[in-house]
Amino acid sequence: MSDESYHDEDIEAAAHHVPEQFDGEYPIRIRGLINRFGDFAVHEDLNLDVKRGEILGVVGGSGTGKSVLMRSIIGLQVPDEGNIEVFGKDITDAEPDEVIGVRDRWGVLFQGGALFSTLTVAENVQVPLKQFYPELKQQLLNEIAAYKVVLTGLPENAAAKFPSELSGGMKKRAGLARALALDPELLFLDEPTAGLDPIGAAKFDELTRELADTLGLTVFLITHDLDTLYAICDRVAVLADKQVIAVGTIPELLETDHPWIQEYFNGPRSRAAADSHERGKALDKPQAGGA
Ligand SMILES: Nc1ncnc2c1ncn2[C@@H]1O[C@H](COP(=O)(O)OP(=O)(O)OP(=O)(O)O)[C@@H](O)[C@H]1O
């Protein structure tokens, strides 16, 4: 299969996922971002727009600043310079009080799930609910938590379990349930499939796509997983040289001649991921003359 053969089809498929009514809306806009640790600059004049309704994959070599970028957007890292607008509000300048109405519109799944080990899954899901809605009655908290647990594909009885009683895949789902506790519009996922076996990872990808589509989420997804990029990302942003050097669909990125992009997307692992994605699409297509 040549690059040409999947080029047009993939651009069409990728574009398909971003609902037309969201055209021109950018829940995240970043301009001139600079982050330094001492003399070491992680980001220099970084710019990025995330479109509403898309799953944006964020890739880059180790240490290029993907997690620092995410931490800057959610206010855990104060940038040295630049502006980050989330839902039109510049969060870099804002007083804590001013961003309250913004912070409860996003959910975060940190690397490894970051569940509280002394709390059950249901109690973990209730943490952000209690933080933002302290007036909610315990019975309602329990009902919301039970719903989120099932929404992420966990069995109902997982709600009463402690993180140590869950498999790696279940922990990720529990972390996702907590990230979805506040019905966010924006979801941040930091390497969600890391540590999962390929089948578990593919299932988690499917869940992410399904939830994004049904709940109308915008997803900022940091990953090293090429299968995830091909399977569910509408666009991919590439971090290198302290900036976002390119953002687009995979076929669009393949047209750029940056050496890291070429090596990453034309390497044997990427080709295998692309081929497997193509085979999956072919199997999904209805057979001519079939029932
Ligand atoms: N709190 C900190 N203090 C000092 N340096 C830091 C801090 N946080 C991150 N860094 C540095 O910033 C750089 C970017 O880190 P970051 O974790 O964002 O990379 P990454 O792209 O997410 O990497 P990986 O793919 O390996 O997870 C690294 O060199 C890291 O050592």
Automatic annotation (TrEMBL):
Bias (Basic and acidic residues): 272-284
Family annotation (SUPFAM superfamilies): P-loop containing nucleoside triphosphate hydrolases
UniProt keyword Nucleotide-binding, yes or no: yes
Gene Ontology molecular function: any one: ATP hydrolysis activity
Keyword annotations: ATP-binding, Nucleotide-binding, Transport
CDD domains: ABC_Org_Solvent_Resistant
Region annotated Disordered, chain positions: 271-291
Alphabetical list of PROSITE patterns matching this protein: ABC_TRANSPORTER_1, ABC_TRANSPORTER_2
Name of the protein described by the UniProt record: ABC transporter ATP-binding protein
Taxonomic lineage of the native organism: Bacteria, Pseudomonadati, Pseudomonadota, Alphaproteobacteria, Sphingomonadales
